[in-house]
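Practice record 12: protein with adenosine monophosphate.
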Amino acid sequence: MDVMRAVLLGPPGAGKGTQADLIREALGVPHISTGDLLRTAVREGTDLGIQAKGYMDRGKLVPDELVVGLIRERLAGDAAGGFLLDGFPRNVAQGETLEQLLQETGVALDHVVSLAVPDGELIDRLLGRGRSDDTESTIRERLAVYEGETAPLCEFYRDRSLLREIDGLGTPEEISRRIMSRVN
Ligand code: AMP
């Protein structure tokens, strides 16, 4: 199989991290989660972590320039031979930046997998997860940020014929089978 460059898109709680873990091995590419990278930076108390923490605690997006630095580093490093991006891009400006970064190295995305899950189910899942930014008020904020800033990326990628919409309800195995059947 050719090198795969894919993005996982979907609201918080849609199962992007779980699916990334299940399918990255099958795709043979590294899983890059900007949320995980940011949480590590916060835990380690780096400059980036200190700057990002307040936004994350409030359920807001971290400013683009902070996140783009992380992605640029990885695309030039272990992700040069393909990747599964989870949590990036998060708005249309980041989508445009990603497109430009890839163009500079002469490559392009293959698929954008969008996981669809109804809001009520998302809130139940997030409340059950117990992460420090999973309180009811931040959850509401993160869902609003998704609708306002991230969801427009669906249109952006539909226009580029890259969007693969997947029903995100079911067992993790059922959902990963749906994804694999669309990206292979
Ligand atoms: P996640 O683990 O993807 O749900 O991300 C957790 C938090 O990290 C988000 O609520 C944002 O504050 C921040 N974050 C993760 N990825 C990005 C991104 N691409 N752009 C801006 N903020 C991000």
